[in-house]
TrEMBL record:
GO molecular function: DNA-binding transcription factor activity; sequence-specific DNA binding
InterPro entries in alphabetical order: AraC-bd, Homeodomain-like_sf, HTH-like, HTH_AraC, HTH_AraC-typ_CS, Tscrpt_reg_AraC-type_HTH
Classification via SUPFAM superfamilies: Homeodomain-like, Regulatory protein AraC
Stored Pfam families: AraC_binding (PF02311), HTH_18 (PF12833)
Name by which UniProt lists this protein: AraC family transcriptional regulator
Keywords: DNA-binding, Transcription, Transcription regulation
PANTHER family reported for this sequence: ARAC-FAMILY TRANSCRIPTIONAL REGULATOR (PTHR43280), HTH-TYPE TRANSCRIPTIONAL ACTIVATOR RHAS (PTHR43280:SF28)
Gene3D superfamilies on file: Homeodomain-like
HTH araC/xylS-type domain: residues covered: 185-283
Amino acid sequence: MNEEQQYPDFILLNVGHAVHNADWNWKNVCSPFTRIHLVESGTASIIREGGTYELKKDHLYLTPSYVHHGYECEGSLSLYYIHIYEEMGNRPSIFDLVDFPVEVAADPLVIQLIQRLAFINPDRGLQVYDPRSYDNSSTLINNIAFHRTTPFAFEMEARGIIQQVFSRFLVHASGKNLDLDERIIKTLHHIHTNIDQPLNIEDLAALCFLTKDHFIRLFRKHMGCTPGKYINQKKIEKAQQVMLLKDVSIKDLAYSLGFENISYFNRLFKKTAGMNPGSYKKKICQPGR
């Protein structure tokens, strides 16, 4: 791991054990936090753009933040859930650097660790399992605030457990990896450090001492998309995060992220998030909707 790559910094939002009976059926879920599920028994499915994953006993399932997905459950299901929020600051997300598997087998130790995590955090369980009831601005802010009041010993233990659980997915990661080209790492760091500024592809290419065409090919090879598409995606994700945590006008938000054309920002937001920024802001400001 080079100096630009750091261990992810996760905040525990929710953890608990749930039993469902054909009532874990939700569509169009897309959250600013990452979910991990440990299946104890029963049958259900997670639906993602890449396909449908039939849940298996004693297996872990990872759904990163801002991944559109859904759930289907036609019978009984018992599982543990963990919701974690990645504090990135000005560095890339771990999910930008690594392609993680959706499913991995859970060893006996990680099962015990998840049970322990739920035991030492009895107040972090969900009261209602409908994502619309907790996937909103006020709930996220309250969970982050609650995290900051956790006794240091429990917080240290929780972070250690989360890292252990997350490492099970990292072991099986493929595609992008922690040995990304140094020029791409430098580019990602520059993008995230300057996400509030207009970002020019020519300037990024010059940063890497490459021609524009060579830079675009190199970026696509490592990141699976063009630098322009990546920048737009990260700017909109940042906009969603800001709206979750602050009360800001759409105009000021667009300007704060380096957009000079509000109409373009609105179109890009809708294309990325599935709704215009005004509708998104209204949605996240209605807890328990």
